[in-house]
Every structure is written in C-alpha cells, then in structure tokens.
C-alpha cells in the first residue's frame, strides 16, 4: 500500500502542481472589427464556410508551435487567419488562451453580418482574420493604445503607485519600453524586462508576430513605444497590427529570463525569500491534502470489504469492458461507412454527410418504408438541416417550417452546420444537391471550392 500511495502522490504533484501556477492571461485588451461586410447573401454563405474552415485549421498549428496562419477560399470571399501566443506562455496556457479568443472573436459577427475582418488582443495571445493578406503587416489604421490604472484593469490596486512616486514610475516606464523596443527585434522579436529604481518597479513585455521580423519588427515596436509613452497611468498597452507592447506596475509575465536594468538587490532578495516560503507552504498543503484523500480512500475500501465481502472482489475481477476484437468485428474493422458522427453533433454530422453525397435516403430505417416513404423522410431531414445552419439569419421561422412540412413552400438548399470541418464531409468532393431534393437524383448545383494554404514565416 505504501509504494502505491507514494506513486500516486508523485503523479498528483507532477500533474497538478504546475497547473496551479499557470495563467493563460486570457483578459481582453481590445477587440477591433472592420466595417466591411459581405453584402450578398449567397457570397456570405461561402464566406462563413471559409471562416469556419480557417478557424478550424488554425488549431493544430497553434497547438504544435504556438502560432499559425492559414488561407481558406478564393476570390473576394477568401479568409486569411492568424493566431499566436506570447512566447512566455506554456503550451497548455496557449491553448486555453486561443480557445477563449476564438469564442470572443465571434463578437465581430462574421456569421450574422459577414464582417470581413476582426482582430482580438488578449494579454496572452492574438487572433485575427481578414479578407486580404495581412501576415507581414506591421502598422495599420486600426492600431490603438490602451492606457489604464493597473487596479482597474487587473482588479488589484494593492501595487498602485503613490502620487509622490508617479514621476519616477513614468521615467522608469519610458526607459523600459524604449529598451524593449530596441532589443526585442534582435532577440527573435521577443523580450521581457523590468526597471527598478528608487524602490519603484515597472515590468514590460514586447513581441512581434512570427511573420513580422527584422527591420519591420523594429519599425512596429518603435511606433508602439512612441504611442505608449503618452500613457500617464500605471499600465499601458500598444496594440499594433504587427506587434504588442505592454508595461505594468505588476509582474505579469512568466519568463524567468527578464532583463533587470537596475534596482535594490536587498529588496529582490527579500522577495525571493517570501516567494520561496509561500511555495513551501503551498507544497505542504498539497501534500497534506493528498495524504488525507489517500487515507480516506483506504478507509472506504476497508469498509466496503467488510460490508460486501467476496462479492466486491468478484465484481472487481469481472471483465465489463468490451474486447477490442469484438469492436473490430462490430464496426467492420472501423470502416468509415459505419461512422455515426463526429464530436458533439453526431446526428447532424451523419445527415449532412449523406445529404452532400445524395444518399440521404440511407438514413431511413428500411422497416419504415411502408408507412414512412423515403422521399417524405428525406424532405423532413432537409428541413432539419435548414434549422441547423451556422448563420442564424438563414434558419427558417417556425411558420415557414410548417409550410415546408405541409408542402406549401419551396425547400431551399441548406448551408453547412456550424463547426463541422468541411474536410470530414463528402461535400468537398461531390458538391451540393439541388433545391428540391429527390432521392437518387443526380442533379447538383455548383459548390464553393475551398482552397487551403499554410503560410510559413520568413
């Protein structure tokens, strides 16, 4: 029992201790949406499809290397998308930050209005999409500066700078952002640092996006440093198309290789002692919690043995899991034809896939062909796909649905449901069926050809 308890304790500490110190910094700094929209309803459907595909294609890239850029579609409905995390974040924090960033970027209303471009700055990551190639862009018309008190932004005013020290703090902040903007382009486009003088500290971070480097990065950060110097507050952010610059009275970054310009060494030593003491207390609490739950589990097992006797051992030894060989035979060796769905919308995925290949009648159970003709069932399923479209504007009202069911209204062609990867459906190969679906019909209308390009940094 002792060895297993020790193993469990080590596993617990290795998994949960780092996560307790993580911070994805998923706080919104600014959301900037363009005023350009896709006016045509038919083109908007294509644009929405390309937008969903672009967001979906970004995930594996950012998961592998914390940055990525993709191009989806062609013509005037092409979608360019880019996502990147701050380089001091861990991979897990990066994934959390970008996941929340994708959700909030929908506030630009790409589905409802067909907004052609939007960018979202989080303190830990950055996400942007547009209808033109902006990947190497450094400065743009929508660049902005966000100034504010650290207490009002971070929800903690304990580290506020007093009025008597404000001029010292501003001088330190100006020195810091100047140094960061000059050194970061030479340091792979990223640098964190601090200035500590006369017991007044300021911390900062500068980063150029992966596709903005060299002289372009230097130009972007120089512009950011000039604009952020106008902030007369404890915290400032310069948010450019090609870079991000921030300073604060609180240390907000995770990188341990920060550059300290000057300061009080005694104060830093005291801070290190306090941090080490706090970490030791936290570790002690974690160990005590683990020991408590292990002991509780042991007591519970002993009580169960006394209560159930040999019956509990028989249940534990019984094989309730299905053998792998049976799964292979039941699914015809995991044939795609037996795939029932994907993700949380399995039924929608299955119907949409069959609809795209003119095999919607296969959804109908053969035993129901008498009282439930396949043609009637296919009509109802097509109406259901109309109600599950990604754009809420395209979904029919209930009164229109009733008319469609009673065959008093034409059934239009449905568009793709939300967040179903176009590559997983047969639509990309066979096109979309015509307006009034007839089982077995070969009538098809033209479909949007989605192209995909993965953009690599220079």
Automatic annotation (TrEMBL):
The keyword Secreted does not apply. Residues 26-134, 151-252 form the Gnk2-homologous domain. It comes from the Eukaryota. The chain crosses the membrane at residues 273-294. It catalyses: L-threonyl-[protein] + ATP = O-phospho-L-threonyl-[protein] + ADP + H(+); L-seryl-[protein] + ATP = O-phospho-L-seryl-[protein] + ADP + H(+). One of its GO terms (molecular function) is ATP binding. Keywords: ATP-binding, Kinase, Membrane, Nucleotide-binding, Phosphoprotein, Receptor, Repeat, Serine/threonine-protein kinase, Signal, Transferase, Transmembrane, Transmembrane helix. InterPro entries: CR_Ser/Thr_kinase (IPR052059), GNK2 (IPR002902), GNK2_sf (IPR038408). Residues 438-452 have a biased composition (Polar residues). Residues 412-458 are annotated as: Disordered. Residues 1-22 form the signal peptide. Pfam families: Stress-antifung. This is Cysteine-rich receptor-like protein. The lineage of its organism: Eukaryota, Viridiplantae, Streptophyta, Embryophyta, Tracheophyta.
